[in-house]
Here is the input.
Amino acid sequence: MAASETPTAAPPSLNLQKMEPRPGPQPGLPEVRWPPDVAGVRLAISGEQRSLSDILRDGFPRLVAFYLGVGLSRHEAEELSAETCEAIVSRITQLRSAEAFEAWFWSIARNRLRTLFRRRKGRKPVDAMISPSTPEEISIEGEEHRRIRVALSLLSAKDRELLWLREVEDLEYDEIASRFGATSGTIRVACHRARRRLEEVYLSGE
Amino acid sequence: MRVRHDRNDKAVDDLRSYGQALVRSVPSDQARAAAGRAMFSRNRHLVVGRRRRRLVVALGALGLLTVSNVGLAAVANTASPGEFLYSFDRGYEWVADLVGAKDHTGERLAEAQVLNARGETAQAIALLRESLNAEKSDHALLASAIQTLEFGRQNQIDQTGVESPSLTAPGQIAADDDPPTPSDTAPGRPDSLPSQSDNAPPVDPAGTQDPGEDSSPSETAPGQNRDTTTTTLTTEKANRNGNGGVGNPDRGTTEP
Here is the structure.
């Protein structure tokens, strides 16, 4: 465990500056608000197109990241994200509570992913997580990210989804549980075990 | 605002960092374009849905109108003069005439028969006269019927001294539905009309009258035509329906 506590210095070739969190809205670009505020979601549900468009604009990158994180290629992730956006647009009026938007959003994303996996059935799965597919990905990737990507590829699809929704998207256990069809306690335990497995494979690669 | 976990877990921290890096790797232009495409797809669905809904409503209304029109025409076709639906019947006939229709002589004769049975002989004659103006009518047949009705009416006047609107008592038509026997149509009787099949001109018992004019009451015995007027109308209608060759081809052409 000593290796994990030691801060790892970035190799000179890595461009970690791009990995730093965005400090705020960049000049000329709209402010990214995620998760969207309840008022904006209410407007979108009522049919206000500008609010819905803003939500989709801010949600699309998160969808792409989620699909990349669970193992899709860049091309697949972007296509599936676009499909998910269309599904959200067509079903937004069926959303009953604006407060439940985030969980609803990710449930649609999960359903789309499962549909894709079902379509893939019978074909040899291509795990895009083994190596980055585009030069852009290569350029933004650091050593830690390469290791975490490889570690994620060794986990099950369910563990990846759980870890992503819990740790990256910061969903509550209740929200995840409602979408996974399980109790909050079950999800809590499953997330804990997934974290343990990630840590094991992550540290084994050092 | 959610409370972030304060675990000192390097793998999870790197996972979060990796996730944020992936989110940032998507250009904002691409995100905006994807949102625009999704919104366009919704508008497209809405437009298509709206058009489809309008088309369904229009087709439904058209179908309902067609069904109601056909039903009304079918019901009105059996209406007799004086009934509410009779005007619809005539209206539909007028429309049918506009699109190249048929001869309505048979219907007019049947209606005149109903009117005559109802005691409205004058209206029956007026109805037949009106039909004479139609181009596709069987003029000879209508003229014969008019002549028959007028002749009978004149007989009625001569017999009773009062101009009665009816030639026959109501209900007599049913009794006279049997085909005429040779004894029914005595030679020279003015109601012995030519059938449509032999296309003969209307009979002028006196040899001097035009169709539509009143016949001389002296040429037949009073009361003789009273019993045969309706029968003749029925026979004429039967002849029009294809039975004309069965009857006596010399009817109406015999000498008095």
